Amino acid sequence: MERKEQKDIKTRRKTLSRLIATQVYYQARFLKNQDLNKISDEILENYVLFEDDEPSSYAKKIDKELLDKLLNSIADEAAEIDKKITELQKKSTKNDEILQNILRFGALELKISKDIDFKIIINEYTDIAALFFDKEKIAFVNSVLNNLAKT
What we know:
The chain is mainly alpha-helical. It contains 7 helices and no strands.
């Protein structure tokens, strides 16, 4: 993703909330027995979106209601979502943890946010994938989420 497009992410409250949710969950999986809300609060107060940015508070730049909804729902849904993602994959390879979290939260939001057009949700998570991955992985995220939306 080009730098201009990366900067646009900063102005999109819901996109930032989704990105931060994936990163909070990523950290939580390594810091076992840590409260997601505590990790979230710490990240929000000292967040660095791009490597040349200074740490700053993102608490007022996100949609806190969406972030809380995602973080409060993922623990109950992760195992079922992971199973569905595995079933849709053509290869039996294990996904990178960041990629898996993007898929998890995309799938979660498709499931719990029926009031939002699935195309918007898929677009949001492919934009997030573009921050980390090449076109092949972005297309993979798009494909998996599209298939999940149809089930």
